[in-house]
Design goal:
The complex is a heterodimer.
Chain A: H1 3-6, H2 8-12, H3 18-28, H4 32-51, H5 59-68, H6 70-73, H7 87-97, H8 106-111, E1 117-120, E2 122-123, E3 133-139, E4 144-150, E5 159-167, E6 170-177, E7 185-188, E8 198-205, E9 216-221
Antiparallel strand pairs in A: 1-3, 2-9, 3-4, 4-7, 5-6, 5-8, 8-9
Chain B: H1 3-8, H2 11-22, H3 26-48, H4 51-68, H5 79-108, H6 119-127, H7 131-137, H8 142-153, H9 158-165, H10 169-186
The chains are: A alpha+beta, B mainly alpha.
């Protein structure tokens, strides 16, 4: 009996340390002998498990489904408009003074919009401790919006951050990004946005996905 | 309602559903939840015990299944086995982190912390009231039952089982395997 085959019973019984479990799984993918042995042994463990199967409370289903589909159902946190009286006001003044201030940088252009509104892009509990400073900038007249972070932690390896636009028709992907080494990011949201919509951010596999799979890390309403 | 029978024969069906889940199909995931929730909740409940915490951990397990659906490999067993491995791992994580918290509290304030209970005895005592489990375990020899009780009901790793019984690791692994084969042979085909 190989060393790995030896670990299949403890694997099924939940009696391995996490590293051993990962090793067994990697080995199983390559060893048909062990796959057959696993199938043979798993019936007994499944029988023991089924003997103590127990229906969870009915409302747990809703909670699980909410969590995997967070963008469409999550409650919007209390909205707090936060004008940055410093440079935003200066930018507004500049925009009013000279209507066509185009810098060539869409993000800068947005900041110079006459009707720029900035709200807090609110971190959810899923982000964890010490959320960064995050703003959602929005210009209703142009439909442009962007998010800005300072101190955003890097996504896990092999992951990216992805933005989502949420309206009555559903949720659509609105661009992927990763912050720079200092945790700074300025990201223009893809697509035009409207008042009443929400913007959310999740962590997703590199390259982004069509349908959100991660938990909502930041969210705000426009 | 008889949840166990719902999960005994759905292997191929479940893997088809899981493939849809990997493509982001929420409805397919809802169906997987309906089929596997009693299995997962039962496993978690047995290990974690607290009803509230069991619900939280069950939720974690399903969210992990949603996220990792694309990583599922049939080589690692049926979808039910895959779910049960995740459930045991997350439930064990929870128990160990709580144990660590209790240990810290005990170091800080030993006087007001409840004396430790023997988890194995307590858990096995509750579980063995179930005729089905008792019936299954009755097929095992004494030494086989001992390792199953410690690992499966007592939530010990095989190394801890070996320590506790003062047996070589190889002996414990072999007894676990023999026990599962013995159980399998006693089951209807």
């Amino acid at each position: 009996m190989s060393d790995h085959e030896d670990l299949l019973a403890p694997y099924l019984l939940g009696a391995l340390e996490p590293e051993e479990r990962a090793r067994v799984e990697a080995h199983l993918d390559e060893c048909s002998e062990c796959q057959a042995e696993l199938e043979n042994l798993s019936a007994a463990v499944l029988a023991l498990d089924l003997a103590s199967a127990e229906a969870p409370p009915p409302d747990l289903r809703g909670r699980v489904m909410t969590q995997i589909k967070p963008a469409e159902v999550i409650q919007l946190p209390a909205r707090r408009t936060r004008w940055r009286l410093g440079w935003v006001a200066a930018a507004v003044v500049a925009a009013l003074a000279s209507f066509a201030v185009l810098t060539g940088d869409p993000f800068e252009d947005l900041l110079l919009s006459g009707d720029l509104t900035t709200v807090e892009f609110t971190a959810t509990e899923a982000y964890g401790a010490a959320p960064p400073r995050a703003d959602l900038h929005f210009s209703p007249s142009s439909g442009l919006a962007a998010v800005e972070f300072e101190g955003l932690q890097a996504p896990e390896e092999g992951k990216t951050y992805e933005l989502w636009l949420i309206n009555e028709e559903g949720t659509s992907a609105a661009g992927i990004f990763t912050p720079d080494a200092s945790g700074r990011a300025r990201v223009l949201i893809q697509g035009r946005v409207n008042v009443g919509w929400q913007v959310a951010m999740t962590e997703e596999p590199s390259g982004g996905v069509e349908v959100a799979t991660g938990e909502v890390l930041f969210i705000a309403g426009l | 309602m008889d949840p166990p029978t719902q999960v005994t024969n759905p292997a191929s069906d479940l893997s088809g559903l899981l493939a849809r889940v990997a493509d982001g199909d929420h409805a397919a995931f809802g169906e997987i939840y309906d089929r596997l929730a009693p299995l997962v909740f039962g496993i978690v409940r047995r290990i974690v015990r607290s009803a509230d915490h069991s619900e939280e951990v069950t939720q974690e397990v399903f969210v992990e299944m949603w996220r990792k659906a694309a990583d599922y490999r049939p080589s690692r067993g049926s979808v039910a086995t895959w779910a049960s491995v995740i459930a045991r791992a997350r439930a064990t994580d929870r128990v160990r982190s709580e144990q660590a918290t209790r240990d810290r509290q005990q170091r800080v304030a030993p006087s007001w912390v409840d004396p430790p209970v023997d988890r194995v005895e307590e858990t096995v005592g509750v579980q063995l009231e179930q005729a089905e489990v008792r019936n299954l375990l009755s097929r095992l020899s004494g030494v086989q039952r001992e390792v199953i009780e410690l690992a499966f009901f007592g939530n010990r790793t095989y190394r801890e089982v070996a320590d506790q019984l003062a047996l070589p690791l190889g002996t414990v692994k072999t007894r676990m395997r023999d026990a599962l084969i013995q159980l399998r042979e006693g089951m209807s085909p």
